[in-house]
Amino acid sequence: MTSPLIGGAELLERAVGYTLGSLLLIKPELLGRPTPCRAWHLKALLRHMNDSLAALHEAVDSGHVGLQAATGDPAADLVAELKDRACHLIGAWTATQRSTVSIADRQLTGAIVSCAGAVEITMHGWDVAKACGAERPVPNGLAHDLLELAELFVTEHDRPGRFAAPVPISKDASPTDRLVAFLGRIP
Q: SUPFAM superfamilies from the entry (predicted)?
């Protein structure tokens, strides 16, 4: 079996495809609903996703990611903006072979950045579906690949700040449930 790190752009494309399906569930009246991301409502999650996609686009375009979040309020229609940004992101990552990306004083490979982006995009796609009251499991192959990566990327240092503690779950659980539980969400 090949490591998911080798196909970073392809994995990112699969993550965006899954998440675009979750974005279709959003209705304006749901924007205030809580998400599995502690203390966040759906509109805040969408803003965060917008910032994340902008950072990933910056990484592929310039080879550098600034650490400042976008200022101001996103466009009135957050969902339309996210869909547009996601599609442009895939085009940029598949058209460019970015070998390294600078984030603050660190140099990372483009594959690591795109794979970390795939984990985040997919998990937030799952969060969006949950906030909308829908069950949208991550496809098994994608969840399996992302779990391998999440176990590399998410350390105890990241908890409890960026991720909650892992949720205990059976080793026989589905790949989606194992991924979700590892990232501190209740399957």
A: DinB/YfiT-like putative metalloenzymes
Angle 52-57-59 from CA coordinates, rounded to 5°:
95
Q: How do residues 114-154 score in pLDDT, each as one tens digit?
A: 888 899 999 999 999 999 999 999 999 999 999 999 988 88
What is the domain extent for residue 110? 4-182
In the block, residue with structure tokens 């686009």? 57
**Residue 28: which residues within 8 A CB-CB, separation 6 or more?**
none
Amino acid at position 80, single letter: A
Q: Which two tokens stand for residue 38?
A: 């502690």
Dist CA 31 CA 46 (whole Å): 9
User: Residue 162 is which amino acid?
Assistant: R
187 domain-assigned? no
Within a domain: 81? yes
- pLDDT at position 123: 95
Domain for residue 74, yes or no? yes
Please tell me the predicted confidence (pLDDT) of residue 52.
85
N residues, the chain: 187
Distance CA 77, CA 31 (A): 11
Number of domains in the chain: 1
Taking 50 as the threshold, does the pLDDT of residue 78 lie above it? yes
CATH number of the domain within which 74 lies: 1.20.120.450
